[in-house]
Amino acid sequence: MTVKIEAKGLGLGYGDIRIWNDLNLEIAEPGLVGILGPNGVGKSTFMYALNKILEPTEGTVYLGGQDIRYMDYKDVAKTVAYVPQQSNETFAMSVLDTVLMGRYPISGFTTSEEDVKVAIRCLKMMNLTDLAMRNFNELSAGQHQKVMIARGLAQEPQILMLDEPTSNLDIYHQVYVMKLLRDIAKEQGIIVLVICHDLNVASRFADRLILLSNGAIVADGTSKEVITAENIKNVYGMDAEVVESDGRPYIIYHVDESVRMGESPAYEKKEVP
Amino acid sequence: MNIGNLLSEIKGRASLSKTLVMEEGESDEEFVFREYKVARRSKVLFIAGFVALFMVLLGYKITLGEYDIGFVEVYETLWKHITGTIDPNSKIELMNDNVVWDQRLPRVLTAIVVGVGLAAAGAAMQSMMKNPLADPYTTGISSGALFGATLAMTLGLYIVSGYYGRVLNAFVFALVPALFIITLSKWKKPSPAMMILVGIAIMYIFNAFQSYMMLRADPNAAASVYTWSVGSIGMTTWEQIPIIGIISLLGFAALFIMTRTLNALNSGDAYAKSLGINVDRVRIVCLIIISVIAAGIVSFTGIIGFIGLVSPHIARIFVGSDNRILLPASALLGACMMLICDIVSFLIIGATLQIGIVTAMIGGPIFMLILIAQQKEVW
């Protein structure tokens, strides 16, 4: 059964810096949901709140109808898996041991054979079995990213959240990963939430897109509803042509003298509503 | 062959999984599963090797001294003492028992429990703080404990009077840097380098007060405090060993329970939280345990540097960074290093020098060699 995500009157920030005020959102249907928006808009911060990594200043998040404030950290981890943007290991273990870390909320102190088999299955999904016994630090940035996705999958969550999972991947692996995530969402009936900067990749694979800008949800719906020339202009300050292929919108950027650093609407300091 | 290559060679040869070949009809998954099991087994073999080394060093250390006793005789005597089968009519057996059990074993046991405690604390601290330079010494915890114990010994200032007043003083002052680290990590989100620099600053502050107290104290008291403070394992008695042993071994056990959580902390706070770990609480509990270990050890033996810092790094070369294996391996290596330092000081100087001096003399160069020779993949 799909675990519904609800954010009600959510306020988020770091110290005096306000990122979100009164954010309301509901994700009830299983599928791949893309979170879009310019750098620094608060996409990762929003994800942190859904995962209890960051305590909201106002409002709350409900997971499957349960108020996250009253859920134990461990129970949240059994429901939601999080794949960070970058690896942050100081003392690296083997690739397989790194993926096994994803079993933390589920398994006991010792690693069971079942844990190892699940981890290997996830490595296989990411085509990483050849690297299983290599040290994590020996891998490239793209391989790190694939290992972290495998680690998220090994958690066997009901909600999977990935922060820019394709940012270091070549186009083949971008497509492969997004297709895999979409298929997992469909087959397992879970919500897969992905922060993505490649609008075309997001448009091609996501069942729902949520476009964020300056502390507000600018657009929320299917790729056709969200990926429009007007939205791109308003949010990113870019002129773009939207064309359709396989029933999905794609954008072609028009790069001219109008694109200058610091002139994107994302730089406009608006009051967070 | 340089040291870096040599370390890699040892590691490569010892890692049995690297010699495996895929069998006919074996799938990718089955092969990786077999590789994983063999790799685990090779790590257990390393631990068994450390245990064997430890047993050899323990026996050999007890043979050293004025009175001549063989390696096998040492273990025979220990066995007979434990099982209560010393022949009361045999002068040799009684003499051996006196030398081994009463004269030499307290020093050796102190070396072992101190090595176990410091190395386990160092390994846990490095993972918890995500910092290869962290140990109770570089974070100022040992200096805080030393200051607390010195307050009691030179000025007679006890939080609670009595036999354990010195230990409690050491614990309370060991908590000062620990609490400072916790507050700082919550408030400022410091980088690993900043944490260590803060620890070193705290260490200097405590050392300054310590030096001031020593200058103001009675010269005889100051001399005895100085001899103790530079790391001494020769002054512990059979009455004190259970206390220091319990503190050190229980501390090790408590940290061992937390090893899986420490593995997750090594991936960063945000990821650890996403795995359901209450990061702040874990850090507080971990630092309290480390402070108890440091206070227990420092109040009986003074400051013994480098064991907590170096042992986890050497262990990591052989068994990797999974704390569930790293912590016991570091503890065993810590005990071995303490015994090696004590043996070396006896063999070279011909007397039992303060162990803190020897660990720094030997541990310092070893640490530098590891740092220079280290290849990236080990960390």
Task: Please tell me about this protein's structure.
The complex is a heterodimer of chains A (about 270) and B (about 375). Chain A has one domain: Rossmann fold (3-Layer(aba) Sandwich). Chain A is globular. Chain A has nine helices and twelve strands. Chain A is α/β, with parallel strands linked by helices and about 270 residues long. Chain A has helices at about 45-50, 75-80, 95-100, 115-125, 140-155, 170-190, 200-205, 225, 230-235, and strands at about 5-15, 15-25, 30-35, 60-65, 65, 80-85, 160-165, 190-195, 210-215, 215-220, 240-245, 250-255. With about 375 residues, chain B is mainly alpha-helical. Chain B has a single domain (about 105-379), classed as ABC transporter involved in vitamin B12 uptake, BtuC. Chain B has helices at about 5-15, 30-65, 70-85, 90-130, 140-155, 165-185, 190-215, 220-230, 240-255, 260-265, 270-275, 280-300, 305-320, 325-350, 355-375. The radius of gyration of chain B is 22 Å and the shape is globular. The relative contact order of chain B is 0.15. Chains A and B meet through α2, β6 and α4 of A and α2, α10 and α11 of B.
Summarize the structure.
The complex is a heterodimer of chains A (273) and B (379). Chain A is of the alpha/beta class.
Terminal CA distance of chain B:
21 Å
What is the string of SSEs of chain B from the N terminus onward? HHHHHHHHHHHHHHH
Largest sheet of chain A: 6 strands, mixed
CATH topology group of chain B: ABC transporter involved in vitamin B12 uptake, BtuC
Largest interface: A-B, 44 and 39 residues
Mean pLDDT of chain B: 87
Helix proportion of chain B: over 70%
Chain oligomer state: heterodimer
Q: What is the CATH superfamily classification of chain B? A: ABC transporter involved in vitamin B12 uptake, BtuC
What is the CATH topology assignment of chain A? Rossmann fold
**N- and C-termini, Cα separation of chain A:** 35 Å
Structural class of chain B: mainly alpha
